[in-house]
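Quick one, T. Sequence first:
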Amino acid sequence: MNYLQKRIQSFGYAFKGIGTLIRTQPHATVHALATVMVIGTGFLIEVNRMEWVALAFAIGIVWISEAVNTAIEFLTDLVSPGHHPLAGKVKDIAAAAVLLAAVLAVVIAAIVFVPYLTGTYP
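Structure tokens:
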């Protein structure tokens, strides 16, 4: 297998990972719904380019956090199949990262959308 084929194959693995994320994580469904709602609202109210950048960042950071959290959870389950207090802490902290990203996303969405929705956009 040559270099290019290996790079193409690596994309396949990444897409397989996205599929696993969506199929196995209930919160991924919530993130997907929120993503569709934010994008739809952005198009509906015609946000500007910089607002799209902020919204894309917010969406991306939530999805990235969820993916890393899921990887950490799977790895923790592999190396510590029984209950261990440190394994629990690892999972809790990884979940906290997703929560923090989601809060950031809500704040960014509020900063972008509230002026449009309240009629106070400059």
